[in-house]
Amino acid sequence: MMQRDVHLKPKDLLEHLQFKEGDFGKIALVSGQPQRAKLCLDMLERPTKNFTFLGYTFWTGFYKGRKITVGNGGFYSPDSAFVTELLCNAGIDILVRLGSCGALREDIEIGNFIIADKILRGDGATRYYVKDDFSPAVDKDLSDKLCKVMEKKGKVHRGGIWTTDALFREAKEIVNSYIAKGAIAVDMVTSPFVTLANLYGKKSCAVLLASDNLITGELGFSDFKLFEAQEKMIKGVFEFVLDSDV
Length: 246
Description:
The protein is of the alpha/beta class and 246 residues long. The protein has one domain: Nucleoside phosphorylase domain (Rossmann fold). It is built from 7 helices and 9 strands. Strands 5-8-7-6-9 form a 5-stranded mixed beta barrel, surrounded by 4 helices. Helix 5 links the parallel strand 7 (156-164) and strand 8. Helix 1 crosses helix 3 (77-89) and helix 3 runs parallel beside helix 6. The longest helix is centred in the last third of the chain and has 18 residues, at 224-241. The chain is globular. The model has no long low-confidence stretch (mean pLDDT 95).
């Protein structure tokens, strides 16, 4: 029988990865897709690779004098949970998610930006961390500032994000129940991302691109508008981190 309280702690893994205190900046820009993380990396001066683990890689460099950490933090709830927990144990104070999502309103178009205001937990990972009635909360001040910046880049919507684990089980009876609770978009990451940030007392916010629309049935995964919007999102987030209060 197992005798230890926990098999592996985040600090144990960081030590195994030869991570040292101070390697990260105080703010992290976290993407699900490695390609999006690479675009963030291209914005940095003098980047240094911090670590690679199970395909998740983080770098730290400088953008106009600000020390920033960037990387790919997982596609799904389980990997997002453990990567976010690593970041929280590695000295990050502010976590910013650059993601994508399915729109839950007819007026949200492919490539529109969505700022997370409310997080609706439909994932399984966070149940290992918090009770079922726990409501994750993004930082309002950060979200307000992020919204103002992104409004200069394109159409912005603000509202609830529902996180699910089952992409092919987004049935109308389930989807509509979360729309009734205030969701305007669905993804597979934001709930554990914000939940873990809350548990560790870190600030978090999230901006997502609408890649498809569950109401209209539109699929924009290969739409050029999505890739154009992604570049605008990344530039906007880097402008956001230059805010003196961030």
